[in-house]
Amino acid sequence: MSKTTNPFRREEDRTLEYEMDVFIDQMDEASGVGGGVANFLTGYTIYKGEKYPFEAVAYGRIGGQNVMPTLTPDSVQRLESLHVDLELFTARLQRKLVEGELTVNIPEGATPPE
Predict the structure, then answer these.
(1) pLDDT at 38
(2) Number of domains the chain is built from
(3) 8 within some domain
(4) Per-residue DSSP letters for 63-95?
(5) What is the predicted pLDDT for the residue at 1?
């Protein structure tokens, strides 16, 4: 990984990669001037065989896309008990969401987006 250019963001530790799979269950459009500016996401990540639910706000216009994930309190508690660095774990989750490394769960009978 390249060295971070943001002096306020902690550099990621290569030993703490936090390999995970990300799944999105629901996407709701938010309101905004000129159309939807943000979307609300509900999903979960699978880390070491366990499911950790989260919610996120995905937004973007000037400067590109961004996502702000928030783990549920139960997810935070369980990850803390495993001595996971929550800041780095959340940063990894955020990166996967921004880069599109995720699976969208489409409900049975629903028409997939084109």
Answers:
(1) 80
(2) 1
(3) no
(4) TEEEEEEEE-HHHHHHHHHTT--HHHHHHHHHH
(5) 46
Q: Which is nearest to 95 in space by CA: 26, 31, 4?
A: 4
**Phi, psi (rounded to 5 degrees) for 112:** -65, 150
Note if the pTM is more than 0.85: no
Lowest mean pLDDT among 6-10, 30-34, 54-58, 87-91: 30-34
Residue owning tokens 């939807």: 36
Please give the Cα distance from 96 to 110 (Å, whole number): 25
The boundaries of the domain holding residue 29 are 21-104
Residue 20 contacts residue 39 (beta carbons within 8 Å)? no
Q: Which of left, alpha, beta for 98 (phi over 0: left; psi -120 to 50: alpha)?
A: alpha
The pair of structure tokens assigned to 56 is 């996120």
Q: Does 85 fall in a domain? A: yes
Max CA separation in the chain (angstroms)? 48
